[in-house]
Specification:
Layout: H1 16-23, H2 38-58, H3 61-70, H4 80-91, E1 94-98, H5 104-112, E2 115-119, H6 136-143, H7 150-171, H8 176-199, E3 202-203, E4 210-211, H9 214-217, H10 220-228, E5 233-236, H11 239-243, E6 255-259, H12 262-277, H13 293-303
Parallel strand pairs: 1-2, 3-6, 5-6
Antiparallel strand pairs: 3-4
């Protein structure tokens, strides 16, 4: 593509629009599509063209069907309004643009309301392989095709409802220190479950092991590594293992969990919620992820 501009536009970590929205305290925003630069569209084009053959080979069939029905453009950043026009009639879900990190309770509450917080910036064209924070390619190309599947969508909604269950449980703990400890543990358990399923999950299929986790689907290198590498331990998902298993985000995952189907995933979310009610998530193993003050406060404020 010729005539590329050097204006930052909506490049991740370099966007004046996002910086201003954060300064103004605006978490939920509009997608200012006119701010995307030729570099931004070129980054999307490169990412999409690189991943498409790997999706065809390693992605689960539900993702591939979703990708087809969304009609995502190959050569430019998609307009979220166009994405939602195809998505909402199928499952009621919609992509909801945000200016950055969404605190845990608000994020899960969005899922409960069939809204997926969606980053609008895109990674720099010189750094396509790894980004420590989500961008629109990860959120839209990695996550959203899965939201077209009714069973997967219901699992997300049920997962969002778990956040309200956690807040209700915390209401019944009168001692502030015990309440904070229990909530921190529950949030850690939920984050681990989300990581090993929605972000980095594998699924059985008639044609072999396939990927459904968005962190894998949006990574050119790791999607193949997750299926083929002998360095990866792949195990049937056991809830007790998952909620006590820490993870790190800055390298390929050495441990992945496998579900049988999205009905199976839905049942596991139900089990997670039941364990929460029984107090079995109040003391999970310490370690990663570290629950930050903002996430904890988002639940504590919901308690009030």
């Amino acid at each position: 593509m010729s005539g590329l501009t050097t204006h930052p536009g909506l490049t991740t970590t370099e966007s004046p629009f996002i910086e201003q929205a954060r300064q103004d305290g605006r978490l939920y925003i509009e997608q200012p599509y006119e701010l995307y630069t030729p570099e931004n569209h070129e980054a999307w084009r490169k990412l999409y063209s690189r991943l498409l053959p790997r999706w065809q080979r390693y992605a689960n069939p539900h993702f591939q069907e979703g990708l087809a029905c969304l009609s995502l453009p190959h050569d430019r950043v998609p307009r979220l309004a166009e994405v939602n026009r195809f998505l909402e009639p199928r499952t009621g879900f919609r992509a909801k643009p945000v200016s950055g990190y969404v605190p845990a309770f608000q994020f899960f509450d969005c899922l409960r309301n069939r809204e997926f917080p969606t980053t609008i910036t895109i990674r720099h064209g010189d750094h396509l392989d790894y980004l420590p924070e989500p961008d629109i390619f990860h959120d839209v190309a990695g996550h959203v095709p899965m939201h077209t599947d009714a069973n997967f969508a219901e699992a997300l909604v049920r997962f969002g409802e778990c956040a309200h269950t956690a807040a209700e449980i915390a209401t019944g703990i009168r001692d502030p220190q015990r309440r904070s400890h229990a909530l921190t543990s529950i949030i850690r358990a939920m984050a681990r479950f989300f990581w090993f399923t929605i972000e980095f999950g594998l699924m059985k299929s008639p044609t072999g092991m396939r990927v459904y986790g968005s962190g894998l689907l949006s990574s050119y290198g790791e999607i193949e590594h997750s299926i083929k590498s002998s360095d990866v331990q792949r195990s049937p998902l056991q809830l007790e293992w998952v909620i006590n298993q820490g993870f790190e985000i800055d390298h390929y995952q050495p441990l992945l969990f496998v579900v049988d189907s999205f009905d199976h995933l839905f049942s596991l979310v139900g089990c997670l919620e039941q364990w929460m009610k029984e107090g079995r998530l109040n003391h999970v193993a310490p370690g990663e992820p570290i629950v930050n003050e903002r996430d904890l406060n988002s639940f504590l404020q919901a308690v009030r």
